[in-house]
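Researcher: Next sequence.
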Amino acid sequence: MTSVQAQTARLLLDRVSPEEQVALVRDLARSLSLQSGKSDLSFTATLLQLKPDAEASKTVFEHLDHLIEQGELDQVLAVCTEHEDINSAIIGQTCTLISEAADALRNAPRDYFVVASLNAKPKSRQGPQQGDQHHVSVIKRTINCLRLVNRVSLHGSDGDRIQVLFQSCLVLLGAESRDLRVQSQEALSFLLSTQKIHASTDQQHIWARVQDLIRFPDKTYKAVGYSLWLRWISTAAAVESSIINPTYWGLIMSGLREGDNERRKSCLQILRASVDAASQNADTLKSITVPSGAQECAAPAIIQKHYARYCTVFETVVLSRYLNQVQECEADLDFLCSDKSVVQPVWVYTLLSCGLDQRMQESNRKLVGLWALRANPRVDGKTEYLKFLQESFLPWATLGNLFTSTLRRQDGVVVCEHGDKLSTFVEGLLVNNPELFNSAVDATLASISGRYGNRFSQAKVYLINGIAKAVNRDPALTLSDVHLEKIHEIATWANLTEVARDYTFAQVWSLSHDRVQKLPSSTKFVSEAVANWKSLVEKAGELPPKPSAERDGSIASMALPPSNREKNEQKTLQRCRAFLSRLEDISAPITVDAVEEELDDIWNDLEYLEMPKGLLAIMGKVFLHHSLIRLAIQSKNQGLATTIATKTKRLLQLAQPRSYMLFPLIAFIRDVVTAIPESATALQLSDLIVHIAERPPAATIDIQLEEVLVPLISDISPSLSPFRREFYFGAPESRGFATLLDLVSRVGTIHAGLPRQIFDEIFQPWLTQKVPPNVVSQWKTILELQVMLLCCEQFIPAATSTDARRILTDMQYVLSLEPLPRYRYLLEWIVARIYIHHPELRDVIFKELRAKDHHANPKFLASLMKIGVRVAKAKGADEQFALQLATLFVPLAASSKVVIRHEAQWQVPILLDHVRQMQIDAITSNTAFEALDEFIRSLEVYGDPPLERQIGVFDPINDHNLAHLVEGHWHDLDDTEQRMCSRADFLALYEEDDPSRILPPSCIPLGDPVPARPVHSVQNSEASTSIDHERRLLQNMDQISRSFNAGPVSATALQTKGAAYLESTRKRHNNLFVVASLVDNPYNLGGLSRVSEIFGAGGLYLENPRVTSNKDFTSTAVSSHHHLSINALAPAEIQKFLARKRREEGYSVVGIEQTDRSVMLGSTECVLAEKCLLVMGSEREGIPALILSECDMLVEIPQVGITRSLNVQTAAGIVLCEYARQHNSKLK
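Model: Next structure:
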């Protein structure tokens, strides 16, 4: 009691007779009500203390009990603070009520109490029943009791009361009411922090309750369990060794694997503290270390450092999610997987499993997976590793996008980099760990067929390929009959593609054959598989020179009966062959009506069967048969001609996603129009060529994925070499493009008007394109320019000067617009050929080069200079042209535009070399030209020209051939398109031509093979890559090993920096404080000072206020720290500070953090309390788990962009602005 109250009470009692004092005290006690103030209650309690009376005391305590029940706790707290005896009695009474409530709720329905004990049976949720109002009132009263306990002083309370409160709160953590759980947690947190309940039996009770909560299915109670565990382990001076057992560590791993980010942070903090606790007992410590090699007797300090490093890596890889930080952790991952680490492998598997979780950011998930794919796995924990392999790694490694995104075409062959890596990984795993062979094969096959697998066909093939390579590489490894049967079963699955199925059948038959050579087998399956292998080898040897899966049957056809669809397809194929036989039988005339009817029926079958590959391959032969075309070009059969033209164009459209159709279709078109020139008009040849040029067929992802599997079949055995790409897809599409270009080069002799017609139709979109054009446009193709060049060669020489000038002007206009180097090269080629064919037009180039404005289009002038030199070197160029060109190069070599100046300097030596050969005295005798030439040649860059200079050189005479057109080095000027065909494709085409037929002449020669580009270094060889990988692993392990001996290991993740500056009106909120003790960057602290002062915070807490003198701090803080209270708060004291502020002053703690329980800033759920402590996380690890557990609310800033997070000062400014918006109206 206060001295004033005591004196007043004594004076009052002195003025009343002893007989009336008791009545006075009783009357005052009875007069107390909910309307009474704190002073009334406090004064009555003071009188009662001076004049004790049982009846009055009972009345006062009844009033206090009523206040507690109604939640009016301020008066109760005031009395308890002033009167220790009342405080002790209230605590005792309240603890009793809480204990009774715990006993009552323990057996209540699940609507009120959820988690009873580990062995309790789940209760049914039946909804409120009659009489349940009692439970509601008990819960309400218990919440108020706990709120009171959490605010009164427990000092001096006896151990029995503390134990009652402790046991009751443990029970109430399983309540359905959130408020009841929260108040119980806070009470336990206080008891733990005061070191009142860390006896051995208390720890056993806590651990038992933690297990009850964590093992309960509801994630809400799991979170409560981990929060209790974290508070206990963080405050315990020592932990009972019997508690720290495999179950203990297993629950930490479970939280890391299955929890959200907040739970994972808690588990990492639990792990750190648990390792520290385990280090006090040698036997306990062995349970988390690798019991082998040099690390068996590692010092406790080393073990702590290794696990601290592990926690840091886990936090960086899984929680921080910045890609650059994850990349920096590769060295740590290498170390953790090495035998130098004492961290048990199961923890590494846990980290990797979390890193491969579907909830992870895709780029980081991919980086972790690729690291695991090339790493040397530790398999110390056999069971745990196989579980990781089957449930985490292989489900990620078999994702379809990993295969599709790594498809590459090298030298005309499609390869899948990820598939090759996956196969190599499986092979290495099995060969390097023979003791795991059977179990690992089981896990791999289970991942294909089990619930963790996916349905991506190619993934299955590469996994099986890895197993087969391991068996072939190590003779000691042998697949069991069960394994072979499982692989055979996979081959029969309906979702496998054609090549994937063929490979799987061939591989399992081959493996069965090899198995019998090693170990005899009596099973029926193996015997049948061996017989099938022998039949397959025999079939491969009997295949014709050009085998086909459609004609000769696939490998799977030897094992599986044909489906109804396949039977129908064969019937249609037989119908097509019969129709072709009738066309070739000249002795049996066929009517047009019968032909049209048969063609319609065949086409209907094609559509009904959904365009099967075998039928599509023969359609060109059906519709473009010579006899059919001769019939169609007759004037009376116009309908038939229209039908053939329409279906031919439709087939080209179908070839768009089916590139394997291109060659046979174009080959038939080329064959028929060169044999029957009149058919060009009937087939509308120009439209067909333009269609392909504008929309070149390309292999779809599905076809490419099939292609990459074909070489795997040949790798099984050399005897299977006939089953190559041509067996499944026919000639490559590159052969089709070569056929098209060859056809275009001859169309002028087939029909004189076709080249100009094709050119005009293709060139029109280029001429009318929008200005400025896009660097890469979807409608532009290399093939268009190649076709235009070939067409120009056929009609430009005969064109009139006026017509040629108009085309030249238009072509140079397009060249002036085009930004892409490849397209510019071909446009320059066309322009140069026009100048060569029409020398009278060379004044045009001089007119353009004499332009005074070099800033308008410097690239265009540079192109004209290259063209001019090419034309000057051409046959028939006169001396005057070379002289004028050389004269123009002098001022151009001094242009203010770098592009023009450099181009002129490059071209001068080339031009002078030519005039010296031509012995043009007017130039060679000119000392100015010689001096300029000598100066340019003396430049260092001239002797070592850049790549684009070497590959961009063009000779309009010697390089004017098909070989240079399709595979010249100019393709390497950019990477927008790959080479479509090669000189070898033309040679293969010419070999297949009928030697008895004379083809129309081509407008361009084939040319000699293109010289290979010089290779400066060989850095990508497999041997070099392997050596570099091994060297990197050793360096990483050595570097990190040395770091553990150098001093303490940082337990924080890697840093990324940023900046932000926000503006607002300055207000002062004395109940708002920003806690930034976790932030250590002075630059960011200065920014926090600035936004805190601008938005009117009452103060800012920093680890060290002296940072305000740092120049980085002041550079962003400006003068804000002079107008803001700066307080010191050590990071280690933050939790206690927040707990004290919440407990004693009623502050609400708000953290800015992205977690699964965060509310969006600005949403209806985000109501910031007026008395607010705003906690900012560090730039690296954010808010630690212990401090997260103190937060009443976590807020997340909504964002639209893909960047994951804001800088700390920016985030603080946004939240402070929202706080000001909500509370500025309350400021006076």
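Model: Residues 84-106 form the longest helix (23 residues). The chain has six domains: 1-82, 298-378, 379-542, 566-698, 741-992, 1072-1223.
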